[in-house]
Design goal:
This protein is an all-alpha fold. Helix content is about 65%, strand content about 0%. The chain has a domain of about 160 residues. Helix 4 packs antiparallel against helix 5.
Length: about 325
Amino acid sequence: MSGIDTNPFSAATGVNPFEDPSVTQVMNSTVTSGQQQGPFPNETAGFTSPAVLQPTTEPAPKEVAAAAQADLLRRQEELEKKAAELERREEEINDRNRTQPGVKENNWPPLPRFCPVRPCFYQNFSEEIPPEHQRVCKMMYYLCMLNSLTLFLNVLACLALFTTASTYGQDFGLSLVWFLLFTPCSFLCWYRPMYKAFRTDSSFSFFFFFFVFFVQVAIFIIQSVGIPGWGNSGWLTTFSAMSSDKVVGGVLMVVAVLFTLCAVLSVVLLKMVHGSYRRTGASFHKAQQEFSQEVLSNKNVQNAASSAAQSALHQNN
């Protein structure tokens, strides 16, 4: 019965599990510690040599300065590229504005691009003036330029006259005043209104031009006469100076001829402008209407009228 009652789950006595041939084969395997396999293929788990920290070396001051200089040069080059790009875009915008309708860049007086003062007016005869009036406008422009040149030569002639006798100092001073005064006024007061009148067919601009240009014709005649002491190298001043100094008298005669030419041309051009004015259909009634519209649409006039009305209301209250 002892053989039958043996417990099959009881551990066998006298049997060492580590003496099993399969276990001893694994334990006796000759794998060195440097060649133990890691968790990944072709990777060893051990290290054959200890880790060594490399010593850090600080860069020399010369190397730091060279690196800083190189960085500054790089930044400067980038800034120059950006500036060139901005300038190119600005030129493109200006070219686009010139080609766009309604956007016109001022072109008079024709000044160089490096000049800090920019042109103040836009002038284009072929674009803004009708073909039948372009000839008259151009001749009026040439008369305005001739007047400026004559006034400048008049200053030089009076200066030459002043060198011969100190009594002509008043003429030299007045000639300088006339040059500084009449040169811009002739352009602004009668040439630009005439240009605007033909450009916009404005009756008011025509009447303003006629009123101012009548005064200009009278001034041309007085300048050509050359009353002594008035600062004009006209014929009377020329004859009086010719007796004392022939060279100075010759210079004064050239200016007197130019003043006379300006006076003759001004009378001829006044008749031509008047003939063109009659063909445009302008009238005094239209000039009154344009003047009233410009006055009523002017913001300064509106503000002045409103302030005057408010002050009158306050006084009545």
